[in-house]
Amino acid sequence: MTFTFRPLDPLRDAELLHSWVTHPKAAFWMMRDARLEDVERAYRDIAADEHHHALLGLDEQGRPAFLMEKYDPAHRELVGLYEPLPGDIGMHFLTPPTDTPVRGFTRAVITAVMAHLFEDPAVRRVVVEPDVANKAVHALNAAVGFVPEREIRKPEKAALLSFCTREQFQKAVLV
Q1: Percentage helix, strand, coil for the chain under 3-state DSSP, each rounded to 5
Q2: Tens of each residue's pLDDT in the chain, 175 residues
Q3: Which terminus of the chain has a smaller tally of CB atoms within 10 A, N or C?
């Protein structure tokens, strides 16, 4: 599977995103009860933020296939929860609900997201902070080279702080 990326358009993409983030499958996204206006506002805020960016991953036909966010952990999400290093970048991703799952799709998505992040030579390490209860994403993270460091407490959740260097990612996806 091959994916491309484009910046998310908060107005044009709000309805699509709303259907994704309010679905029961997206419970860990913590927007289950969000109204369309809430989703639009949240992504307008991200679009205006120099330290946080949202992108849509597109399939081979150019259709939206997943959501990706990247952020500077020195300024967003993890401020005061760990000591960021130069070259750290934070990441979230969300695959949409489907009635016809494609085997290997989510792993292909996280692999594409990581490859996209590491295309920037300034990125040396990706940091994630998924909910400690999200066992499925922990397995996906491990598959692309993430190593858990410790549990942290965020205002909205208990999270598993994990890191993946460029070398760990390359080793994981080449094996």
Answers
A1: 35, 25, 40
A2: 899 999 999 999 999 999 999 987 877 677 788 888 999 999 999 999 999 999 999 999 999 999 999 999 999 889 989 999 999 999 999 999 888 888 999 999 999 999 999 999 999 999 999 999 999 899 999 999 999 999 999 988 899 999 999 999 999 998 5
A3: C
Number of other CB atoms surrounding residue 144 within 10 Å: 19
144 phi, psi to nearest 5 deg: -105, 10
Q: pTM higher than 0.90 for the full model?
A: yes
Phi-psi region of 30 (alpha: psi -120 to 50; beta: other; left: phi over 0): left
Residue type, 82: Y
> What does the alpha-carbon distance between residue 88 and residue 40 come to, in Å, rounded to a whole number?
28
- Residue at 41: amino acid letter: R
- Contact between 113 and 53 under an 8 Å Cβ cutoff? The reply is no
Cβ-contact 34, 15 below 8 angstroms: no
Whether 145 contacts 65, CB under 8 Å: no
Helices (H) and strands (E) in the chain, counts: 5, 7
